[in-house]
Amino acid sequence: MKFAKEIRVGNIIMVDSKPMIVLRSDVNGSSRTGFTYKWKMKNLLTNSPQENVFRGDDKFEVVVLDKKEVTYSYFADPLYVFMDSEYNQYEIEGENLGDALGYLKDGMTCEAVFYDGKAISVELPTTIVRQVIYSEPAVKGNTSGNVLKEAKIENAIEANQIVVMVPLFVSQDDQIEIDTRTNEYKKVVRN
């Protein structure tokens, strides 16, 4: 058990017997009146957001989740199926995958996050390399400053295609590196 004042952003805690991840923490008060902690949290099982205010001496159980390396296999509406190295299959609902849906590709390796023996979501690598499948050509004369254009990247499910803002010199069929946390272009990958 930890006091509220010891909980940090990214910690997973039990609130009303539900696993919640702390997304943001705002501290108010003084040492004389006591501190309060306003947390923006997300339920790990339902992905529903929640905001609560706690006193600094409130206690919480910190949960450590299990993680296992898995490979994306296929989409079985409405579940996404992943497989580990021992050929065990894990089904995860689309709404629990969040932004990861836009980056999934057949055979992609990521980490499945488990709570109570059940796979609840996946964590992507920080950076991934994807092929640009569509991008407008650069317009002559539109090169002053840091000009960006939209580029669609390859993934397994066309309905979840992601658009990344890239520099004008990036063209269709280029391989680009993307930061999956921010959806930002990093660089062109040359072979």
Automatic annotation (TrEMBL):
Keyword Endoplasmic reticulum: no
Family: Belongs to the elongation factor P family.
Annotated GO MF terms: translation elongation factor activity
Name by which UniProt lists this protein: Elongation factor P
Keyword Nucleotide-binding carried by entry: no
Pathway(s) it belongs to: Protein biosynthesis; polypeptide chain elongation
Ranges where the Elongation factor P C-terminal domain occurs: 128-188
Record domain Translation elongation factor P/YeiP central: where: 67-120
SMART domains per the UniProt record, alphabetical: EFP, Elong-fact-P_C
Chief localisation class: cytoplasm
Originating organism: Herbaspirillum rhizosphaerae
Function: Involved in peptide bond synthesis. Stimulates efficient translation and peptide-bond synthesis on native or reconstituted 70S ribosomes in vitro. Probably functions indirectly by altering the affinity of the ribosome for aminoacyl-tRNA, thus increasing their reactivity as acceptors for peptidyl transferase.
Subcellular location per the Swiss-Prot or TrEMBL entry: Cytoplasm
